[in-house]
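TA notes. Do not distribute before section.
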Amino acid sequence: MKANPQNVFTTLARHPALFKQWLGFGGALLDGTLPARDRELAVLRTAYHTGSAYVWAHHARLGSEAGLSDLEIASVSHPDALWPVEDQLVLQVADDLHYAGDLTDATWTALCDRYDEPGRIELIVLVAHYTMLALVLRTLRVELEE
């Protein structure tokens, strides 16, 4: 039995040219250079900030597959949770971009210490992409699958 496609795909596929390009872009982010744990932590914090139940639901599963525990996934919405310094940085990048649309100097310095240039670019683009996707899903009224 073939699974039904996700609503995000069936909705965006109504604009075939855009959908084709978006699939490649989104796929590049999901299969990028960042560790899967970092990627999913950033996406989940972005889903929390944007209030996207759709992104949250899909990426909670992916986060679990990437090694995030159920407790860690539940704690993404708690800024005061005790996170290792590496995770704190990923969360801080998502926070800075959400609240200011930019990184503080301290966050940028920490980002430069941890990631190479492609990694820095990828993390920032990842958060920006999922912020955009949350807006698109909300505006187009894309519902979470059963």
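Switch to the second chain here.
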Amino acid sequence: MLRGFDAAAVLGLLIALLAATTWPRSRLAWAATAIGLITAIAMDQQRLQPWAYQSLLYAMLFATRPWRSARPWVMAIAVSVYFYSSAGKIDFQFVHTVGKDMVQAFARPLGGLDDPLATRLAFLLPAGEMVIALLLTLPPTRRLGGGLAIAMHVALIGLLGPWMLGHSFGVLTWNTVLAGQAWILFVRRQGSGDLEPKHTSAWARWPVNAGVCLALIAPLTERRGYWDHWPSWALYSPHNSRIDFEVHRSALQRLPAAWQTYVRDDEDGDGWQRFDLESLSLDQRWVPVYPQARYQLQLGLRIADRYKLQDAIRATIKGVSDRWSGHRQQSFALGRDELWRQNREYWIGSP
């Protein structure tokens, strides 16, 4: 029954998105889109991808006010994406892993760089993104910031495309959309088509205003664990909390055959094999696994219950890494019961 309701929710969301695209001034279509996104995400938190979250915020704004009134709010959200994304990358983990790899990929056609130099240059990536955020904040420099944002997204499409790092189609599409957004919001001059239509009642606006204000401020608490990483725009920021799962060789046959290829032996002879949830999610669902230890722990619990793993599953639970040293607090759980005890420390969320 839940699967049927879930499929109906997704179908309803697609119809609402089609209606909103066809009639962009229809507040009813945008309201239906917002409701559809909330329902789909509530049914499966894995759908809370950054682009879905951003679309939800925009849909709520467009459902309660015309474009001219919504535009400043949309601009604030767009600037916050660049600001928090940059702040999340000014981080030991980023410059020594993802950032270094990006710099190496850019430098490869020129012969490459040694790792220490690539690590130092990796700081330029979040620094440039922070400059863009600051330029977009100030009206006199807004068009320059918009042009630089477009250039950044074009460069990212080149870097992340199949000809270089080969990231998912969704990432490339989102960068394309963000480049178009930068043109519309910050480079293109506002025309007469943006004139204010009829008034919208305040009662319909204040809950959305409060929700958007929360979305703008709450990412400040992300590293303390009060707000999730992706709604905090921690994009390509490997400091996030996470869980490494292992399944014992004796229970491997209990998993679906299609999943068994994602269980890899570390060849240390102890019988425990790494369960690669990240690759499984990318291949089976075309999106990264939600990067939050809480969600991944609850997902592991569901897998343990469904396939009766009991004592044949264990986990290393890793907290948020320190910004300057990269160190993490870690805890360990052996078996389904210990996973459940760890799960009781969280007060919200389920897979």
